[in-house]
Amino acid sequence: MDLKSVLSLVEVENVEYVDFRIVDLLGRQHHVTIPAYAVDEDTFTNGVAFDGSSLIGYKGIEESDMVALPDPSSAFLDPFVEAKTLNIVCNIYNPDGTPYARDPRGIALKAEAYLEQLGIATSAYFGPESEFFLFDHVRYASGPTGSFFHIDSEEAYWNTGKEGKNLGYKVANKGGYFPVQPTDSQADIRNEMCSLLTQAGLKVERHHHEVATAGQGEINFRFDTLTRTADNLLLFKYIVRNVAAKHGKTATFMPKPIVGDNGSGMHVHQSLFQGDTPLFYEKGGYANLSEMALHYIGGILYHAPALIALTNPSTNSFKRLVPGYEAPVNLVFSKGNRSAAVRIPVAAVTPKASRIEFRTPDSTANPYLAFAAMLMAGLDGIKRKLDPRELGYGPLDKNIYDLSPAEKTDIKSAPGSLSEALTALENDSDFLLEGDVFIREVIDAWIERKRSEIQQVERTVNPKEYELYYDL
């Protein structure tokens, strides 16, 4: 959709408000709403002013004036606001008209421009599988006199003995893949989410209940170019959360909200194209992959410890990244093997669908930064011809979790904590700086923020510590 189409839509649909959206360093969206009668071509040329000092990772109060410049191609009608509202994603600019170097969306756009500049491909396509939970109730608190969290779901296995009206049909621990109704109690809600996603312009491919109990679900939407997919992922989370709220439920994309059951990941499918020609396919190669694809994998796995600081950027991420829960902590690649960090899908794959799947990430990532970083790692692998076979990253076509300790000796592992991942990023970030895609200031700000989060978690007294140590 171009500018003229947007202004025409406002008129034809009798839009009352236009909602302009930006994203902070961590990946949370923010918005400012303007009456439609005050929005014209000048709004798209001059942008919307806002205070950058009030957003995480932006500017200090002494230089806080910033401009949100709307991207008309991102416009969609908001299905949740009573007054008809058009939502538009914006890029961030300085008052002098230059792009703001810390803008996450701007970084994603620079990564795509760098790809074309190298002449390796014209497009990078990304397709995330973002899992989530729908709970009926959530309470949490953290303070000097106590800390706790409590969640509940009508379909959770722990409610089999719940008093009052109880119809059974609970989802067993790790038993949620993928039963029919009435055990799957949320099919209608996911249908509604899919309908609204389609209305907003996303191409939904399928949805289903996921492995965990207590309302874990997954909705897959069609891949797109890097920045557009990041836009779509934020739109996806917006629609999932608001439909859940409409039904009296709450949605979370936390990687590990339940102890002892599967967590929520965000497997990211990736491929490169030259025009309409897929560059990752070569008939007869390993899993029908081209040498370029293998080098891309080499870059992903070589830089994985640093990447994980951006793709799994929460302390909670590392409660999911443990062996035994289909969490890919092993830095190897394999065809059709879900225990590997990089999986090569082989079922019903055409040349144009030839792709690699990085299974480690989760949805606490800022998608603009995470996708841009993955592309930069893959491009570094292509430029340096990093062969994952020579570097000891496989292929390993076995269930890695069933290997003996001796067989696992040479398998490299993902960092065991956010702190380890941040240290890896400190030591390996030059590949992100190529083409001025990322700047050192952004990486330093990210590391500083995340170390602050680690410190907050480590200094908070945990209820488990009372269980372990109170009577010693």
TrEMBL record:
Keywords: ATP-binding, Cytoplasm, Ligase, Nucleotide-binding. Pfam families: Gln-synt_C (PF00120), Gln-synt_N (PF03951). The keyword DNA damage does not apply. Residues 13-97 form the GS beta-grasp domain. It comes from the Bacteria. One of its GO terms (molecular function) is glutamine synthetase activity. It is found in: Cytoplasm. The keyword Ligase applies. Its main location: cytoplasm. Its EC number is 6.3.1.2. Residues 104-472 form the GS catalytic domain. It is an enzyme of class 6 (ligase). Belongs to the glutamine synthetase family. This is Glutamine synthetase. The gene is glnA.
